[in-house]
Specification:
The protein is mainly beta. It is built from two helices and 15 strands.
């Protein structure tokens, strides 16, 4: 059976800017898949020069699933932005801007990769709690801690019956909500979510994503899913 690396990441704050601007005050509710590429690249030490690390994350080379471990809580913090890169001059004025952050984000990531070297190196670094570069949640000062849960087998099910999905769901895999859907859920759709990016930092694939802001499983029917066999339970996730 195929295997996946499962690890958890968390921090105090996160900010994942919208793709249509260099700097935005608002953040995605969850990290884009392209941001997770950068996090993995930092942990295993892939070359960041000219975005070379993205050469290792060509479309379909890496599959991930993202599970929320905590409800999504957003906070707005007044932040002083610098007017330019480099040393701050006495004549420069900082630009106070209200920035939106995700407060105390925590996620579980399911990771597979077609390159054995990438997969095995990440497994080693996670097991040793070692990172070559400092992983962050979008911005340089938003540090990430991580914990390796292990390597586990999974099975891909095509056209499965309605079930609870424990990860976010790309709309391209979504069929319908299940009969157990209730108003207690807080399911939202995130549009223009970045899935793939080339070395010119041009997003080549975008998706609309379903999440439950309360970090609850989503009762739904999907085109296919992955059943991951953890020691105490089997979870249904959608890798993309």
């Amino acid at each position: 059976m195929p295997k996946t690396l499962v690890f958890e990441v968390w921090g105090k704050y996160a900010h994942f800017k919208k793709i249509y601007a260099t700097t935005t005050a608002v953040s995605y509710l969850i990290p884009p898949k392209t941001a997770l590429y950068g996090m993995v690249a930092a942990i295993i030490g892939l070359d960041k020069t000219d975005n070379a690390y993205l050469q290792h994350f060509e479309p379909d080379a890496c599959k991930m699933a993202l599970q929320l471990l905590k409800p999504v809580v957003m906070q707005r913090v007044n932040t002083n932005l610098r007017p330019h890169l480099g040393r701050l001059k006495d004549t420069d004025n900082r630009k106070p801007t209200m920035i939106e952050y995700i407060y105390q984000p925590a996620y579980r990531i399911y990771f597979t990769h077609s390159q054995p070297t990438i997969y095995q190196t990440l497994q080693q670094h996670l097991a040793q709690h070692k990172a070559v570069y400092t992983p962050t949640f979008g911005l340089a000062g938003l540090l990430v801690n991580f914990k390796f849960l292990g390597e586990f087998t999974f099975e891909t099910l095509q056209n499965p019956p309605e079930t609870l999905i424990h990860s976010v769901i790309p709309m391209s895999r979504f069929v319908a909500f299940g009969n157990n859907f209730t108003l207690q859920s807080e399911i939202v759709e995130i549009s223009q979510y970045a899935v793939e990016m080339n070395t010119n930092r041009i997003v080549t694939l975008r998706e609309d994503i379903l999440i439950d802001r309360k970090a609850q499983p989503i009762p739904a029917t999907v085109t296919h899913l992955e059943q991951v066999n953890l020691p105490q339970e089997t979870l249904n996730v959608v890798m993309f």
